[in-house]
Write a structure and sequence with these properties.
Strand content: under 5%
Helix content: over 70%
Order of helices and strands: HHHHHHHHHHH
Length: 275
């Protein structure tokens, strides 16, 4: 178990530092540190997403029996990805810190940080990214032990499908970068937004009904009978995993409505929408 975790602890922070230093030092680029940090963090998230979804596809398509079949990648990649979630909490904080500095709230005129400013930024970060930080913490403290110990080698098919939820992440990251650099009205941003909406719907929201359907087909049960045929704690776990996905999907849909609203059209009145 230790080797994949050590490898993940080297690969993800190492890729971040390599990307940041390259963007800052290449003569053709010479990016500011804030820009390099933000883009590098998104790049690492996208790389991890591609690796996770690829591993998930290999595992899920290799397991013909959805309960008993095993694939070595399911355990190996789960262990490899644990350091990513720990690293990403810090990377997100760095992004938040640099955005705070760019807005001119990071220190006084002499360049010295104002007393308590770091704590103020940290509180702002936890307030803004609380759900994402909680999601990462749950992945490390709850989902990882459950997948390694509680499963006892069962259900690699389901774990592989869950890994494929990361398919939408590169589109989310690219969208954030385009918004950061005020490219919301470009064709690239609109195409990426459509792909992000579709991939998030299919790979994160509809994933859970699909998993219930797959188990129902295996057990010879109709879809609506599956929740009653499986343990309550499994339903509870699925609901807890689905809840933040539904919230994020709502935010994506709201952003898509703003993106594709015709220019010059009046925004909906307060009576027509709840924002």
């Amino acid at each position: 178990m230790l080797t994949p975790m050590v490898a993940g602890g080297v690969v993800f922070p190492g890729l971040f530092l390599l990307s940041k230093n390259t963007l800052q030092r290449l003569p053709q680029l010479r990016w500011e540190e804030a820009d390099a940090v933000i883009v590098s963090a998104r790049l690492v998230s996208s790389v991890q997403a591609v690796m996770a979804s690829t591993a998930g596809y290999i595992v899920s398509t290799s397991c013909k029996h959805i309960i008993d079949d095993q694939h070595w990648l399911s355990s190996a990649y789960t262990q490899f990805a644990v350091p990513y979630f720990i690293y990403d909490i810090y990377a997100m904080f760095l992004c938040h810190w640099h955005k705070h500095q760019v807005k001119g709230h990071g220190g006084d005129e002499g360049g010295t940080r104002a007393p308590g400013s770091t704590w103020a930024v940290a509180r702002g970060y936890l307030h803004k990214e609380f759900l994402m930080v909680l999601h990462h913490a749950v992945m490390v403290l709850v989902c990882f032990p459950l997948s390694v110990v509680w499963r006892q080698g069962k259900g690699d098919f389901f774990l592989g499908c869950l890994l494929m939820a990361e398919v939408s992440t590169p589109f989310v990251c690219l969208g954030k970068i385009l918004i950061q650099y005020k490219q919301q009205h470009t064709l690239l941003h609109k195409v990426n937004g459509a792909l992000m909406l579709l991939s998030f719907l299919c790979c994160r929201v509809l994933l859970f009904p699909y998993l219930y359907w797959a188990y129902g087909r295996h057990a010879g049960l109709p879809l609506l009978a599956v929740p009653l045929a499986i343990p309550a704690h499994v339903n509870l776990g699925a609901a807890l995993l689905l809840a933040p996905q539904l919230y994020w999907f709502f935010l994506i849909c709201r952003g898509a409505c703003r993106l594709f609203r015709p220019r010059g059209s009046r925004p909906p009145s307060p009576c027509q929408t709840q924002d």
